[in-house]
Amino acid sequence: MGIILTWGYYLVMLLFIVTYLQKISLLLRKKDELPAVRSGITLPVAASAAVDILLFRRLFLSNAFLWFGEWLFHACLVLIMVRHLRFFLDPVPPCIFSLQTPVIIAGYLFPLSLIYIFMAKLVIEKKSYLSSSNFFLLTLLLLSAVSGLLMKLWFRPDLAEIKWFSLGIVTFSPSEVPHGPLFIMHFVLFLIVFAYLPTHIAAAPASLLDARQREKAIRSLMHEK
Amino acid sequence: MAAHLKTQGDRIAEGLSWRQHIELDACTRCGECQRWCPVYAQDSRELLTARSKIKYLRKIVGERLNDREEEKFISSLYECSACGQCHVVCPVRINTSELWEQSRASLVKTGILQPVSQIKQLSAIKEFNNSYSRPQQERGLWADMAWESGFLLKPLRLWKDHPAPVLYFAGCTASYDPSQQAVAVQSARLLQEAGIDFSILGSEEPCCASKLRRMGDGDFLREAWRRAEMIREMGIRTIIVSCAGCYKGLHSDYAGIWLDAPEVLHLTQFLDLLIGDGRLRMRHEVPLIVTYHDPCHLGRHNNIYDEPRRVLRTIPGVKLVEMPRHRSFSSCCGMGGGLKLAYPEVQLKMSAGRIKEAEATSSDAVVTPCQTCAMGLQHAVDEHSSPIKVYHSNEILIRSVCPDVTGEAVIEAFSRR
User: Fold this and answer.
1) Which residues in chain A show pLDDT less than 50?
2) Neighboring chain B residues of A208 at a CB cutoff of 8 Å
3) Of A81, B95, B113, B205, which sits 20 to 30 A from B126 (CA to CA)?
4) For B383-404, what is each residue's pLDDT tens digit?
């Protein structure tokens, strides 16, 4: 089983890298017909884009109710992901250890934020607001969160075994999978989520930065002489 | 790749900019676009939403779209006013209006043409240099008629005779459409009242060709280059535009084309400056409660929200109230993006919805600085016998500055000629 999961991990990572390389090669080959109007990445442009990216400013303006759930979910996800690095790093940087308390809180808030998003989209909007892909992804994340919490609270696996398994992946020396179906489920769910959402992670911040660059360029071209 | 080996998907992919390819990947299908889309509000079909269009666009670029899906995607691409509401609410700020326009142009390159009604108008623009299929010589007639009818303080001078510091660009609708020529006349009169030294291009004025961009015509770039070059050679440095569509064209669509960009201002921006400097004075009270409709091409697309409102607020007697959806969330009236040509019934529903919003504010009139929006809204008022009036913002201003140049007076005087 350890071998299968390890190779599954490599396959997903390979897909991730190939998808990115494909996108990059497509972008490098492109010659735009219309001259692009974009400013350079100046400090004000970068700062405003950073606010858009980190605080989801646009979503706040259009749907403050949903924004709360989405921002909380993303913040918790980042904290949890960073904290999970302790399984793949040896020695573990002290900064990751220092996140213990916030990550424990984030671990509880994470599934709650997902339920909040489900409720906001299904109950409050009432229309077919929740797309099938959104539904699929939210379900995967919720199952992943629940399996993680179950391991944290009731069905505690051997952390040393998990660390050994994770280090085996990054050192290309596959080892036995930790005992218990919950860990396998948790790991497989992570692989599916990762495989499902590869390009959005980089494309969304790029899109937000681009919008700010364009705004700045048009303003300076036509008004700020 | 050899040209003959290129597939349809390859050609469409080529048409999109590399930033647009990133945007296709950036969509999370979150559904905010659906929640705010004014077209979806008329006909709740998922197909009409931005996230659906992006899904299909991703598929068509990747050659995974079957014939049925392709047909659905194409119709959804044109059943859209490109109002940009989805761009405003998109959490990752996908520039949807540009994406739809570029997708339309890319599809045309693969042989998938626009709806026939749009093709007719595009052909007229290219053949007659205006969307009304009228002779170019008639383009400046409004100026002569306005002077002869006594609506102007002095005759308007042509740029070729008097290259003034400012050029007033009337646009096709205000030049040719009898119901909207008052906009050009009132604009000129207001500039004269403020003592501005300006000229017009008269029969030399070109169509801005922005409709070519809106509807995805492949000749847009060539036509726009030609016009930008003409304006550059003339040495024009400041252009005042009274049409929101022309403003979007000359200001934003040409932004990457100008070699040495002139300053392009919408009339309301310029009047706001003039009023602020005390050069344009309001003389008469206009006792009206009005609500302001933000044209997409000025508001969402160019961030012009405050200036027209400031202008209205300076008019004595005018009380401005806002509709629930205003500024960047203003509901589109459906007149943009060629929607009215292809789907007139959808446009009418959208306008009617906006008129209902305006009625709910208990205003006497809905005011907009875009003559195209005014036409669309007026159509809904007529169809639904609404008691609310629709005015171009010039009309309210002129009633305060020089009430003898009302739209009604201009239409009557011009119709006698």
Assistant:
1) 224-225
2) 92-93
3) B95
4) 999 999 999 999 999 999 999 9
Q: Could you read off the pLDDT of B316-326 as tens digits, one per residue?
A: 999 999 999 99
Give the CA distances from residue B218 to residues A31, A103, B107, B214, in Å, rounded to whole numbers and listed in that order.
16, 54, 10, 11
CA A127 to chain centroid: 27
Give the count of Cβ contacts less than 8 A between chain A and B. Answer: 128
Give SS3 for B208: coil
Overall average pLDDT of the B284-308 stretch: 95
Give residue A72's domain range.
2-16+55-218
Residue A126 is predicted with a pLDDT of 63
In-domain check, residue A89: yes
Name A184's Cβ contacts closer than 8 Å, sequence gap at least 6.
Answer: A1, A5, A177
CATH classification at residue A184: 1.20.950.20
Q: Would you call A45 helix, strand, or coil by DSSP? A: helix
What ipTM does the predicted assembly reach? 0.81
pLDDT for residue A54: 92
Q: Domains in chain B and their CATH numbers? A: 3-113 (1.10.1060.10), 117-274 (3.40.50), 281-404 (3.40.50.11810)
pLDDT on residue B4? 55
Of A207, A218, A225, the CB nearest to B22: A207
Contacts of A126 in chain B (CB under 8 A): none
B327: left (phi over 0), alpha (psi -120 to 50) or beta: left
CB contacts of B36 in chain A (<8 Å) are 62
CB proximity B6 to A under 8 Å: no
Domain count along chain A? 1
pTM of whole model > 0.80? yes
